[in-house]
Amino acid sequence: MPGFNAITDVPGVLVGHHHRLGRGWATGTTVVLVPGRAVGAVDQRGGAPGTRETDLLEPENLVQRVDAICLSGGSAYGLAAADGVVRWLGERQRGFRWAPAVRGRAHRAGRGRVRPAAQRLGQPARRRVRVRRVRGGHGRAGRAGHRGCRHGRQVGSLKGGVGTASERVGEHTVGALVVVNASGEAVSLETGAPFAADHEVDGEFGIAAWPCRPGDVGAGGRKDLNTTIGVVATDADLSKAEARRLAVSAQDGLARAVRPAHTMYDGDTVFALATGDRPLSEAEGTVGGAQRAAALDGLCAAAARVFTRAMVRGVLSATSAAGLRAYRDVWPEAVTDTRHGR
Predict the structure, then answer these.
(1) Minimal CA–CA distance to 257: which of 135, 136, 155, 144?
(2) What pLDDT digit, counting tens, does each position of 184-217 carry?
């Protein structure tokens, strides 16, 4: 597995986080920045979306390329966190005069009393993309499960987090970053095994053996204001319509990791970025562009896989907060790998 097994393995993709905890706060913002710009697309599922500027990413609409994706907590108030990113882009004469896309959901603590804003979250998150690598629970600085939009997240009965993963598909790289905050469960509470445990690659989950015992998740909390949001990226040269197919496929990866997925209480939203650094196979004497379609299909299959793996890694790397118990505290005997911070 090349690189850091993270979305930043896709050349030209950077990630920054900022969060705030305590005094009623349990929220944060994560920014995915593409300095060279990228073709952008989006796919939304579930019954409770809350987004900004996503209509512009429809294939038939004006904007073709984007500079950043902002993922924020704070429900509708969290949409304001994108203002800081927009301001930063505008100061550098970047962007298309208005905001990059943003997705926001409710924070767990202090709901209705604290509001993420541009100066508090958006701009600090962008500044921190100077840390160029995000390792999704592996290694030192940049552990995605402990940062940014991860705070206040919940997945079923457990604490949610931010996870990331990547893989190579021929000459191309596909990566994903996911804020795991779902109404459904990602782990069997009877055995302690993630539903997508079989998607592990090269021991990346850091679990020697799943616990095989019920877990005491405590009182849990409200599960009616959740959503999973994320970004899937590739270095392939794709159109907006082709990029959207990546986002659609990544939603399949979400459904593999969470049961149930795409509920009326979720606003599951996946953004896709295609930097265009490497060409996708063109049709060479084939009917209807079959060769290109086959190449795109391979990227889509990878998008589903990396999104699934990123979700599992986000759950395993989370730490207890805001009254929610994390996986590592419910089944501590399973999390022995130092890559998950133990």
Answers:
(1) 155
(2) 999 999 999 999 999 999 999 999 899 999 999 8
